[in-house]
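Re-run with default settings, no changes from the original entry. Doing this only to confirm the output is reproducible before filing.
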Amino acid sequence: MCDVAPASAVHFQALAVCHWIQEAVHGAAERGLAPPPYALESAEAMNDFRSIGMPAEGGGSDIGRKALWVVRELGLPAIVKACVCGRSARHHPTGKFRVNANGKLLDVWMLICCEMCGRTSKIPIHERIYVQALQSERLLMFENNDPAMVRDLAMDGALAGKAGYQLDWSGTWELETGMRSCEPGREDPAPLEVIIRFELPAPIRVEKLLTAGFGLSRSAVRGMVDSGRIRLPMAIDAKAREDFTLFVITTPPPSRDAAADQEACP
């Protein structure tokens, strides 16, 4: 589930991309060519923003050049493994651990329950481990059913692979884009820096983050990436689960025709 930014925050982000949309449409018209489909689509989406006034920070004419997007945690992922009831494969942690001692050896399990029938089963965390090999603080967290430990293990992809189950992240996050910070005193155009923070390691396609954050369609976002307007540290089809930063270029590079004219000038 995604939470798209309110009008004021989206307006702030839209200003950074409005210039390149206008240039793409007008430039194509001057050359007698059809503008790129993504430019037309984006221009349509931006029309509403042109009539919205937004005061500059501190009374100046510049706007902030940084934006903060946060992937907020809504809940833990479902643990997908077969249940003997056959009615559902989705499980959720009960919030409890089971610790069994056998001489100098310990077994630790995390307890989970079926979403449909409520039957309890267990996921092995430590099996036949020597007591001395387990940190006393960690053992105490298991014995006290520490919520932070439950959360960490419920999101642990390595544990899921080792124990043979999958994690379903649907409905566990939302994107908040209403927070922003400003770079005061800048009078020249500068790239818009978008910092994306993750509260949980949910694997999310970069394209999905961009469409939700900018409020644009997939084709419009891909057009911006292909044209170099959005610069990413990874592929747009990649899945991100950790913090990263992207840049939106507000000043377009010179067109080929303009570059050719510049070279032709003595």
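Residues 119 and 174 are 30 Å apart (CA to CA). The chain has a mean pLDDT of 77.
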